[in-house]
Write a structure and sequence with these properties.
The protein has three domains: 2-126, no CATH class; 145-212 and 297-448, Rossmann fold; 216-287, no CATH class. The chain is 33% helix and 23% strand. It has helices at residues 53-67, 76-82, 120-126, 168-181, 216-231, 236-252, 258-268, 272-287, 318-337, 360-370, 386-391, 403-409, 417-424; strands spanning 2-7, 10-15, 26-31, 36-47, 85-96, 99-101, 114-118, 134-139, 145-149, 158-161, 186-190, 204-206, 308-312, 344-349, 372-378, 394-397, 431-436, 444-448. The strands form two sheets. The chain has an eleven-stranded mixed sheet. The model has no long low-confidence stretch (mean pLDDT 89). The structure holds adenosine-5'-triphosphate and magnesium ion.
Length: 464
């Protein structure tokens, strides 16, 4: 390989036949004489456009067509030129004294520079990254193992995205499993019963209605009022009445159910619409399979008997699902705030289907502060709130073909959109581009490794 030219932050390198390089790979362009270098990432390939080459190409083609009988000696050089490639590389950093530096005041020589391929390990070494909590995530483009630091996922907001079937859930399982192995706490909202394979790795599956049964009294006033207003659209006037009733009912009766509430409403409220509004919604809540007066499930007990929990959301109706998630988030945020729960990672697949919109901001700002670290997984990045995009710390992008989805990703801060687009379009299944803190803002392609445990969640098909 040889340096060809530099334009802005793009370096073009000529690769000779036989020098194969992958899109997304890192190269170190090193001038040993001057002891300066550049760390660049290959983001695209092109054929070389040499003046006169088209003529050569046509000439060869014509010779091949008309006279080729296996004996003609082609001009070797013109065949080689035909196969030359220009590597379009983004300059990611300068290099001096064995380390990545922000700036060098000279360019490496075009004539004498050596160009070497960098493994992820070597790159991390050069940028001075030491891994404290290693997660073996897969291999880099050169086929060497790639380890990321769970420490960089801690306290952060992470997104796993990519088109259908590209390998998102597979990576999510690997990360959840690795975080728990390292002593982290993980809660998974499992929409498709596809994380159950983690049960064999010590995760506990929580089935709504069996393991998860709450009493309304346990939920408490704030959570019940939240569910009634935010999920079941109880108008404000009615919700104020309900909140007032809650206190007096609990003081006098010690229990809270629609029967008692009906009695109190009869005695104190004339407006039939208000009564009906409150009672109909209370009935919906009481009819959820995970609500029962004898229910004794307490979120305070989470992470006492396991570090990983899977909440199975699949068999719930849409309303039940949203109510259950509201209860979990509302209770958990209070418990985290009161330091009655340890910090936790929350894995949520297609979260827009069950987390109400007004929660996004709360989750990514306030709740993060108290120790709730979300990992969102989606094949529709534009389904997520804009607040999330501005605050993402880590992104794992699998293959996308659709320009609209790629466009959404370019709104993420710290991402140089053009090169991300170029690399992501060519990823194979199970490979992703990692962006953000976890790679110190050096976008890296990783081939996610297979997991040892049984991976559930294959899409069912008619023909096997
Ligand atoms: N790195 C990998 N190694 C081995 N198998 C993989 C890998 N990544 C994905 N697979 C397999 O490919 C299939 C699709 O992967 P996965 O379910 O993770 O895709 P997805 O992006 O979550 O798809 P969807 O959008 O439909 O949820 C699964 O059968 C999974 O086991
Ligand atoms: Mg999936």
């Amino acid at each position: 390989m040889k340096v060809y030219r530099k334009e802005g932050d793009t370096l073009e390198i000529v690769a000779f036949p036989g020098e194969s390089v992958y899109k997304g790979e890192y190269l170190l362009v090193m001038d040993e004489e001057k002891s300066v270098g550049l760390i660049v990432q290959v983001v695209d390939f092109e054929y070389v456009d040499v003046p006169g080459l088209i003529e050569e190409v046509i000439r060869e083609g014509l010779i091949r067509l008309s006279t080729y009988d296996g004996s003609v000696e082609y001009d070797r050089v013109s065949i080689l030129i035909n196969d030359l490639k220009i590597l379009k590389c983004k300059i990611r950093s300068a290099y001096k004294g064995g380390r990545a530096v922000n700036f060098v005041d000279d360019l490496p020589s075009r004539a004498y520079s050596k160009i070497v391929r960098l493994s992820a390990d070597r790159l991390f070494e050069i940028i001075g990254k030491d891994v404290k909590y290693p997660v073996l995530i897969g291999s880099d483009l050169l086929g060497n193992s790639m380890v990321i630091d769970a420490y960089e996922l801690d306290g952060s907001l992470t997104l796993i995205t990519g088109m259908k079937g590209s390998g998102k859930s597979h990576l999510a399982k690997l990360l959840a499993y690795s975080l728990v192995s390292l002593g982290g706490n993980v809660l998974i909202f499992d929409l498709n019963r596809e994380y159950l394979g983690l049960e064999s790795e010590g995760f506990r599956v929580l089935e709504p209605g069996e393991d998860i049964v709450f009493s309304i009294e346990y939920l408490g006033k704030d959570t019940v009022v939240n569910v009634m207003t935010k999920i079941l659209d109880l108008p404000h006037v009615s919700s104020n009445i309900l909140a007032e009733l809650w206190d007096s009912i609990m003081r006098r009766e010690g229990r809270f159910n629609s029967g008692i509430v009906a009695r109190y409403l009869d005695a104190s409220v004339k407006n039939l619409m208000v009564k009906d509004a409150i009672l109909s919604r209370l009935n919906i809540l009481e009819n959820c399979r995970f609500i029962d007066p004898r229910g004794g499930f307490r979120l305070e007990g989470l992470f006492k008997d396991s570090r990983g929990y899977i909440v199975n959301l699949r068999d719930l109706s849409g309303v039940e699902r949203r109510i259950l998630v509201e209860i979990f988030l509302s209770k958990i945020s209070r418990l985290l705030e009161a330091r009655r729960l340890p910090p936790l990672f929350l894995f949520a697949e297609e979260a827009h289907l069950y987390i109400r919109e007004t929660y996004w901001e709360d989750i990514v700002t306030r709740m993060r502060h108290f120790g709730l670290f979300p990992v969102f997984i989606t094949n529709q990045p534009d389904s997520l709130d804009q607040t999330i995009f501005r605050q993402l710390d880590n992104i794992f992008v699998f293959r996308f073909l659709n320009d609209k989805d790629l466009e959404t990703l370019s709104k993420v801060s710290n991402v140089d959109a053009d090169s991300v687009k170029l690399v992501v379009k060519d990823l194979g299944r199970g490979s992703c581009l990692v962006l953000g803190r976890v790679v110190s803002d050096f976008p890296l392609v990783v081939r996610v490794r297979d997991v040892g445990f049984e991976a559930m969640g294959r899409t069912r098909r008619m023909f096997s």
